[in-house]
Every structure is written in C-alpha cells, then in structure tokens.
Write a structure and sequence with these properties.
The protein has 14 helices and 19 strands. With about 525 residues, the protein is an alpha/beta fold. It has three domains: about 10-200, 3-Layer(aba) Sandwich (Rossmann fold); about 215-395, HUPs (Rossmann fold, 3-Layer(aba) Sandwich), CATH 3.40.50.620; about 405-505, GMP Synthetase, Chain A, domain 3 (2-Layer Sandwich), CATH 3.30.300.10. It is globular. Bound molecules: xanthosine-5'-monophosphate.
C-alpha cells in the first residue's frame, strides 16, 4: 500500500511542536495545547534545527523526561534550535536542557522534589501574568537549575527549586521546573495560554468545526472522482472516519460492514440504522456469521481463534472490495497516538493486535486516514459535531475479534447467544448506575467450565458468567473497577434469572498487569 493521503491538511493552522524527551508527558502537553485550540505535533528530541524550521512552528515546547541531564546518553537537543528565534517553553527536563545549553547551572539534588509544592512568583512575567503570587504546582524531579543562563531572569521559585521559572523575554525563551500540563497544577492551562497567545501569537483556530472543514477539503482533493471503501465496525474510529469521508464525498464512499456474528446485542442493527437509514450511506452489510462459525468450529486456542477470525475477515473484505468497481482508496481510522507510537523512538511499541483488520499488502488501495492528526477525545467531539449518536461516539472500546475473545473454549452459536444476552444485562446495569463513561470497559465473559448449582429444587450443571469491568487511561494498564455491591447484585440476579444456561456469576478482581483486559 502506498502512503496515506487525505488527512486534514494542517497548513492553515498555527502549529506548536512538542519535542519529546521520552516521558509520557509529551502527549499530555500536546493535548493541552490543542485544548487551547492551537494545533500541536509531537516530534522526537533528535530533531535537527533545519527540520524544526521545515515544520514552521509558531512555538516550541520541550517536554519533561525521565533522565537527568548528567547521565550518560541523556537525551540532548540540537543547540541551534535555541538560535532560531522561535519562542520556546522548556518544561522540567526541557527547562534543564535549556538552562544547560545556554550556560546556566543544573545541579543534582540529594532529595527529589515530588508532588505538590508552592510556587512563589517574584517578578512580573508574561507566562505568569494575572496568576496569584502563591500557587500550587506539581513537581517531579531530582536535578534542578541552580543558576539561570546569562540574560535570563528568575521570576519564580519553590522551596527546593531556586530557579523554578526563568525567562528571557528578549529571546522569548521560557523555562519552568514544574509540570503545567497536569491537573495538579491548577493554573497550568493559563500559563500555556499566555505562552501560546501572547508569546507565540498563535491563533486559536484549531476548533472542531475548523478541523472538519479542513479534513473535508483534504479528502476531496486527494480522492477526486474515485470510489472509496471503508471497513465499518461500528466502533468510534471507523464510524467517525466514515462520517467525515461521507461528508466530503457522499456517494463515492461505500462502507462495508462485515457482520461476523461476534457482535454485541443490537450492534448490527445500530450500524444499519445509523449509517444506512440516518446518514444514507452506501452500506454493504455482509452477513457472514456462518462462515466465521465454520472457521471457529473446534478451535479453542486463543491465538488460533484470533488468527481464524482475522484471516476470515480479510478474505471477506477482499471479496467485497473486489466487487466494487473503480475503488481506489481505503479509509482507515488511524489516530494520532498510533502515528506517534510507530514514529518516535522513545514511545512504547504499538501493540500488534491493534492491526487486526489490517489488510494484506497485495491490495492496491491508497489509504485515506482522516483522523491521523487527532487524539481520541478530538475524534469523539468531531463525531458528535457530525451528528453521530452518542452511543457510538462515546462507546467503550470493543476488540476487533469481538465476542470471540470473550468466550473461553469453542465459539458456537449457542454460546455466543448466551454471552450476548448476559453482556447486554451487564451493560444495561452499568449504564443504569451511571457508570458507563467512568469505566474503560465493562462486559461479560463466558468461561469453558461448568459448576453445580440449584435452581427451584433442581440441581443444575451449567456455565458461569464472569463480569469484567476496568478503569484505565490507555489500556496499557488497568485496574479492576470498584463497582458498588448493589449494582453487582442486580447484574448477578438478572443474569441468572434471564439467561438460560447460566447458574453462577463471578466478578473478576484482577488488574492489568498481571491480567489482560480481555480473557483471551
Ligand atoms: P488486553 O486484553 O490486551 O486489551 O488488555 C487491551 C485493549 O485492546 C483491546 N483489544 C483489541 N482491540 N483488536 C482490537 O481492535 C484486538 O484484537 C484486540 N484485542 C484486545 C481490548 O478490548 C482492550 O481495550
């Protein structure tokens, strides 16, 4: 496949680049900048001054990092970047890198300064403008700047950081030891705004309407008169991508919904209702449950199951795609975090299972990735703006192989129906308790064991249902959710009473690690 085309051209937006020194904070900074309606992009710390110039940013932010500027192999920055005349805000490690590069002194402290601390503003500063003289900020560092470089003034301090904020107004260089991007620094967003608007002169035009307009233009330009295919799963990303491309090119888009029979209750109907009836899209609903069940017959190994589902999905999609005359482009719901994770050195590797549904290399489509520049919360907001129903836009993640990875042992029609009914009850009760948005995921699992029970004087020997509910920020780690007992109780009694074939309900109290979120 050739390289992607058609994602929002960002040329019309003022851009701030966030130079990533390897901490998890870079994404948070980039999001804060966007929340201030300024476009931001994350770049690795070995970026050259020339490459920064090519990005043509109105400002640069240096992120925090896990390292000390003194350890061997500590991430460095091309010093010429400080000479470009572009405003720079250094945060934590970025503050120290700036101080060191420009002739200041960074010292290793014996004690780390970690957590909430009080910042005292000592002199007027653009980025601290209108902020109280004393305020809480969040610190997480061991090294500290003990002397600012020549030409810089120290404008704020904390008990353990004599140079907590330094600046050279003339050169428009600013450094802060604390983390303005975290919620524990309550006035952090004000500081970003001052930096973005007053120092960098950035225009706040990265709005949802603005993003949609630019994406629509970009898709039209990339596609021309050609036909475009979109694999629609009903998940947030493919749904928003489809709605956006549909807004751009209408009937030139054909959406393919491969209904493998491993969906949750009501899901296929909702896809039909939303995209077929409400949006009037060209929707091909391929009902291939039998084909998947045939492939899954007798398969109990989790990896084999995933493989069988993934391969069958691809075969079906290929067949449908081949039947659509003139289709040259394929829509993918790739998001910005995927792009960052595959592109920058210091971020963790993307998980391979997120590529399920990825298509074979010999398919000759060009990719359209309209969400490539967006974070998940932006995608949701845009979906709402485009008129997608809340149930789709705010939906909890659902794995590509569907209920197939929530049935331990063989996947059969009978077991799918049992799980689907129990899962619907779990979700209904979660919603009723107002917990749906608080939970990262909540669902039912059907294990391959049976146990003895008694119902109405009759001895039963039936399957249990496991309830799984977790909180998480990114699915890399997760905590089991402390669901109130009365909610669990309602789930339990309803599942037992309403779902034949179940005689026991358990709650999974395993976090990730050591467990994974899904059971397979
Ligand atoms: P685990 O089970 O590894 O899952 O903790 C982490 C997150 O990824 C989702 N998941 C998948 N998503 N295709 C997907 O698109 C898959 O094959 C897949 N497997 C797991 C899972 O639901 C959770 O959000």
């Amino acid at each position: 496949m050739s390289s992607p085309a058609g994602h929002a051209s960002t040329g019309d937006f003022d851009k701030v680049i966030v130079i990533d020194f390897g901490a998890q904070y870079a994404q948070l900074i980039a999001r804060r900048v966007r929340e201030a309606h300024v476009f931001s992009e994350i770049v690795p710390h070995d970026i050259t001054a020339q490459s920064v110039r090519d990005h043509d940013p109105v400002g640069i932010i240096l992120s925090g990092g896990p390292a000390s500027v003194y350890v061997e192999g500590a991430p460095e920055l091309d010093a010429e970047i400080f000479q470009l005349g572009i405003p720079i805000l250094g945060i934590c490690y970025g503050h120290q890198v700036m101080a060191q590069a420009l002739g200041g002194v960074v010292e290793s402290n014996d004690v780390a300064e970690y957590g909430r601390t009080e910042l005292t503003v000592e002199a007027g500063s653009e980025i601290l403008r209108d902020l109280p003289e004393n305020q809480d900020v969040w610190m997480s560092h061991r090294d500290a700047v003990s002397a600012a470089p020549a030409g810089f003034s120290v404008v704020a301090s904390t008990p353990d950081s004599p140079v907590a904020v330094m600046e050279s107004r003339e050169r428009r260089l600013y450094g802060v030891q604390f983390h303005p991007e975290v919620g524990h620094t309550p006035r952090g967003q004000d500081m970003f705004k001052h930096f973005l608007y007053s120092v960098c002169g950035a225009r706040p035009n990265w709005t949802h309407v603005g993003i949609i307009e630019r994406s629509v233009e970009a898709v039209r330009e990339a596609v021309g008169d050609a036909q475009v295919i979109c694999g629609l799963s009903g998940g947030v990303d493919s749904s928003v991508a489809a709605a956006l491309v549909h807004k751009a090119i209408g009937d030139q888009l054909v959406c393919v919904f491969v209904d493998h029979g491993l969906m949750r209750e009501g899901e296929a109907e909702q896809v039909e209702a939303t995209f077929g009836s409400a949006f009037h899209m060209n929707l091909i609903h391929v009902k291939v449950e039998d084909r998947f069940l045939e492939k899954l017959a007798g398969v109990t190994d989790p990896e084999e199951k995933r493989k069988a589902i993934g391969e069958t999905f691809i075969r079906v999609f290929e067949e449908v795609a081949a039947s659509i005359d003139g289709a040259q482009f394929l829509v993918q719901g790739t998001l910005y975090p995927d792009v960052i994770e595959s592109g920058t050195k210091d971020a963790a590797k993307i998980k391979s299972h997120h590529n399920v549904g990825g298509l074979p290399d010999d398919m000759t489509f060009e990719l359209i990735e309209p969400l490539r520049d967006l974070f998940k919360d932006e995608v949701r907001a845009i979906g709402e703006e485009l008129g997608l129903p809340e149930e789709i836009v705010q939906r909890q993640p659902f794995p590509g192989p569907g209920l197939g990875v929530r049935i331990v042992g063989e996947v059969t029609k009978e077991r799918l129906d049992i799980l689907r009914a129990a899962d619907a009850i779990v979700l209904e009760e979660v919603r009723r308790a107002g917990l749906y948005h608080e939970l990262w995921q909540s669902f039912a699992v059907l294990p391959a064991i049976r146990s003895v029970g008694v119902q109405g004087d009759v001895r039963t020997y039936a399957y249990p249902i496991v309830i799984r509910a977790v909180t998480s920020d990114d699915a890399m780690t997760a905590d089991w959710a402390r669901i109130p007992f009365d909610v669990l109780e309602r789930m339990s009694s309803r599942v037992i009473n309403e779902v034949p074939g179940i005689n026991r309900v358990t709650y999974d109290i395993t976090s990730k690690p050591p467990g994974t979120i899904e059971w397979e």
